[in-house]
Every structure is written in structure tokens, then in C-alpha cells.
Amino acid sequence: SNEAKDMLTQLNGGKLPVKQPDEIKARPVCPKVGCRALDFNLTTTGGQSMSLNSLKRKKAILVFTTGDCSSCKEMIRSVQQVYDYWPRQQLEVVVILSQIKSSDVESWVKQNNVKCPVALDSAGEMTNRYKPDRIPAAYFIDGDGNIKAKRYDPLSSSEVDALLRLF
Q1: Which of 41, 56, 64, 110 is the most buried (most CB within 10 A)?
Q2: What tens digit of pLDDT does each residue of 51-95 get?
């Protein structure tokens, strides 16, 4: 939709990204829009190892959050709704949770009704590598591993869906 294109254009400094195959391969690895996303290897609350490379060919949303902020809960709620109806072979949502004790994670997941994978970043290592300007932060990544957009404010599930449909 035009609204979604306008939103992506605003997120990318007024320019709608153009996908050029050779450019994509040559893009540097960094935590900025237009770069190849930094790989990670974290353990989910289910005890599974997850990396960005394991999500190849899928779109992904990485949500950096803490256990206690209200806007974080709003962001989680909106991406969870998208996670609930997008097919797993097309999209993965990973919540990267920091600043919470390991013993509190299970109750946090239940309290917030989170069904998507939650990876504990207790030392803040991934959060420090991605360096979001603030929390919550959602990084939208295409199937080639490139960061297409970043958002710091909670989105409605329809806004998240519209962004995902652009790439």
C-alpha cells in the first residue's frame, strides 16, 4: 500500500530502498538500515540455539526489549499478533530479552503471553552489538539478511504487517 511505502521511505531517510543483487552482497555487516544484519547465536527459553544464519530465506523481526518497560510490552504485543498469523516458513520473530534475571524469564514469558522465540541476552552482549538508540527496538530483516527498517516506538500489528509486505 502507499501508506506502507511512505512509512518505509520515512524510516530510511526519505529514500525507498532499491534492491540491487550485487549491492546486497557487498553491503557491510553493521546494525544500521541498509547493512547486512549482525549474526547472533543465542539460546531461547526453550533451550534451542538460534542464529540469524539459521533463519535464511525468511524475513525476521528482532525485538530488543527489557522485562519491565511498558512500551516494550506494547511492541511485543504487536509483533506477537503478526507472528501468530504469518507462516513460519516466511517470517520469524525473535525477542531478545535483556536486563532480567534468568529466574524471572519464564514468568515474564507467561505474563506477556509470548509465543515467539525469546532469547535471553543477560550480559547484554547482543544489545551492545546492535546498539539500538533506545529500547524497545525492532529490526526488520529481509530474507537475504539485510536490515530494511528499524522502529523504536510500538507499532500496530497492521503497521508491522504493511512493513513486512514491502520486502
Answers
A1: 64
A2: 988 887 899 999 999 888 889 989 998 889 889 989 988 999 999
